[in-house]
Amino acid sequence: MAKISPIQFFRQVKQEVKKVTWPTKKEVTQTSMMVIVLVAIAATFFFFVDQILGWVVKLVLGLGV
What we know:
By secondary structure, the protein is mainly alpha-helical. The protein is built from two helices and no strands.
């Protein structure tokens, strides 16, 4: 592996960053909202699954209801 100077390295980094296609503010907002909604749905789903499984375990072990 060839060694390069720090200056040359940062020049290459700058060139590569210029090639990046950055998302628009609208795209970032939309994807962020989608993530928030999906996390809320997943959290609600797992909350109810946890409640049901907890109830089943208590029922099987004779500790509850």
